[in-house]
Protein 1
Amino acid sequence: MAEPALTIGQAAKAAGVTRKAMRVYEARGLLPAAERTAAGYRLYTD
């Protein structure tokens, strides 16, 4: 079974940061690139 995916908002809330911070961390290589849906939404796992 696949791991449940979190949206950027859900992941940011769980980490205690903003969605913008998540995007910056990904752009700077501090987070691995997130998987994307067909519509381009980022999906994160634990």
Note: The chain has a mean pLDDT of 92.
Protein 2
Amino acid sequence: MHRRAGALVAGTVAALALAACSTGEGGTPGGTGTSGGTAGGSVDCADYEQYGDLSGKTITVYAGIVAPEDTPYITSFKPFEECTGAKVDYQADKQFEQQILVRAQAGNTPDIAIVPQPGLLAQLVATGTVKAAPEGVAKNVEEFWDPSWKELGSVDGTFYAAPSGASVKSLVWYSPKQFKDNGYEVPQTLDELKSLTEKIVADGNNKPWCAGIASGEATGWPLTDWMEDFVLRVGGGDVYDQWVKHEIAFNSEVPTEALDMVGEYLKDPANVNGGFGDVSTIATTAFQDAGLPILQDQCSLHRQASFYAANFPEGTNIAEDGDVFAFYLPAKDDSTKPVLGAGEFVTAFSDRPEVQALLEFWSTDTWANLKAKASSDETNGGWISANKGLDTANLVNPIDKLSAEILLDPASEFRFDGSDQMPAAVGNGAFWREATAWITGQSTQETLDKIEAAWP
């Protein structure tokens, strides 16, 4: 769901002050990480000559990323607009995920859409309205992204959508001060995470974990992330892929072991629910509020994605030595580094030259760095990408830097959010529903059996 992929990133965005175009020396947009305009600087239009003169052309972009999070997107297109003469008409809609399908089925499509899920991309492709990605976009994605990202933007072997922004889900939030005061250390393996949990229980100062899965009609989705993270750690990337594609049953050995491991943390009353009550309160605690008790030392740990930074109160110092920070949810051992995440994909419904030009620019490292600069906020806001050309110096806040380091680490084995790739009847239906029933008392076996039975 897009609400998990970055729609919650908040904070005041410092827009780039871009001056009028100038000409001069410079690399191509596909080959530099810093050209194309900087805050308070000018745009080197030599970098954009390959896109031609697009004066008088308008390109519509439709997305679910609304104000104020849309501002960095609008800002990131300014150099392209100033140097090519084209106008990018960015249209934001909170009902994007429903409306883009309605518009595609009615033949009323935008030029470009920012799609938050591979599953939704496949639904759009099935309408026959989506255009295959241009060759220039494919080359950029092959150069700047891990091959798995191109696969995620493909349907039945055809490449349709380049990746854009990303989020890291394999994170555990904690209080650096609480860790220092109690002599706790960031765990490096799952065994160490379990030992840390047991030590916090033994110390008796607070509950080790706090959690919340309430999210309106989407209640339950945070538990699907927990399970996906543990399937990835128990079975590895290949088994995870088989599970997501239903090549192995939802209730088979590895998924069963993974959910039971989650239960060792979340269904044990000694471990949860810090600041809220007993285990049952996990189902009724809003996911936005779930990690806040860390700030009051009512819990020590909260597993949630990088975008959760936006939910801490204004003025919270999110840093390695601050009020709150996060660490990578460890693997079984240091021989692997599984990473669960999500992201956005850029796809087109038109193959007009100006649309193809914007798509190509959007898939470069130049755009990624422009977007990172436009998104940088010294408190909670921000944006990251798995684009290998992203200069992490353009990321201001520490959680973005941490997330980018995890994403771009050559040792990382990245996998996309599983429920976002499953059929809707499962991914945002039975999986959410039965996960909620599981946390309120339903057994692992019954939970997984019911999800398996719901698979189309």
Note: Residues 1-40 have pLDDT under 50 and may be disordered.
Protein 3
Amino acid sequence: MSSINLDQLYRRVIMDHYKNPRNKGEIADGGLTIDMNNPTCGDRIHLTMQVEDGIVQDAKFDGEGCSISMASASMMTQTIKGKSVEDAVRMSKAFSDMMLGKELDEDLDLGDIEALSGVSQFPARIKCATLAWKAMEKGVDSDVNPN
């Protein structure tokens, strides 16, 4: 597939997640709640997660932001559900590496998230793409290390 067609496909995937976000909302019965914002551009995320026995049972988000920020949150919540906290954090680290233009482990399947790989060419947008992931890391860290 040519790079132009791949770029168009990636744009479509990002816009689909932005216009039709997965897991938008809030988990009503408690769990982890994390609020973060990107003061540079005004993106904000409210992430709720239900973690039981080290497994992310559910993850939902709400917030405001650009298409990259909101699409990334949609993709992230979809990807981490059912994963161990360890795997979710490993995926977050891989995502951060991808945003920095580093090579990914070939065994790691990021699915739709790979559509955001082009963001690495726009340093000002990397914080937009990583906001939800940083919120997730903060949440699971606070669950493991409450003090």
Note: Residues 100 and 136 are 19 Å apart (CA to CA).
Protein 4
Amino acid sequence: MRSSTDDGIAADFYDFEAALSDEERKILLRTRAFMRDEVKPLVNENWAAGTFPKELIARFRESGLVGLSYEGYGEHRPAVSHLLTGMMALEMSRVDASVATFYGVHNGLAMYSIEAGGSQEQRERWLPGMASMDTIGAFALTEPLDGSDVAAGMRTTAEREGDTWVLNGAKRWIGNATFADHVVVWARDVADDQVKGFVVARDTPGFVAERIENKISLRIVENADITLTGVRVPEADRLQNVESFRDVAEVLRATRSGVAWQALGVMIGAYELALAYATDREQFGHPIAGFQLVQDLLVKSLGNITACWGMLVQLARLQDSGVFRDEHSSLAKAYVTARMREVVGWAREIFGGNGIVLDYDVARFFADAEAIYSFEGTREMNTLIVGKAITGESAFV
């Protein structure tokens, strides 16, 4: 078994990394080195302060790790496999879930909304700058009063006046929105009651993004409350291939699997910390790694990691083969995040009292897991999506 000090990860007990091609593994190793060298030294200070280190944007820009999953944009062409992009999400979350979320919102939710929902002219206008991180994106769907029921209950409205749309409403929990250049805003067309997508510049009059304070999870991410008061958006900035919420669901289906990979990375990061601590920490004259109860927690953690990793490798294969369905990503998100909660709890337990101190890192993983467990569809909502698929009966109220 490899150690975490060489090219592999000790938690990769079944050598899933071997499924990558040689070229893909080079990109993965670049991601691993970038997170270790550029991100990790900044994490705890910014997590404690609740600030996003803006200098990371320039470092990401230089890394060549953005836009790889979009053919024709970014450093690599054609687009890389879903297995590699999943492994990259794992690597980022293994170091810090907040930075991984910043990347996922920009590179996943925002960019994929434009890729899937925009015209060719819109893709060519926005995606190259986003792929180089010269511009930053955000994704505004959730609302103050509507989370899981936003498909039916969306209150933000869009009304067309000639070649202009007027947006009014509010959004909540919008990552990157305080500093993003472009925010993909979803609103209900008052004329046909269907959801439409709009790319809104942050400096548009009537658009206000206020940072949400006092979070206990993903503290580095700058989530915002957005208010839209008479925000005027040209028809040219409406995503031309979005006609209903089904198009939004297509984006969520694709990105939800990335959240599952992120949860796996959090598991691995917490497990690695616990394993190292158990090896070094002595009680009663022996390293606690030699205690049966500690080994039981470590092995259960590794079992969760291995089971989830195998599920996600197959999920990526389904995506790459084009037979990927909503229930596939929903099962992964629901199952992997539940197992993540177990692993971070066991890791914190191994640390004892030290597990609640940020200096030991595991407290950050423990706290960050709570946000990942909830966003991109709660466990309950994803369970109902899978339940409908396997029974043919809808249990949605």
Note: The domain at 16-131 is CATH 1.10.540.10 (Butyryl-Coa Dehydrogenase, subunit A; domain 1).
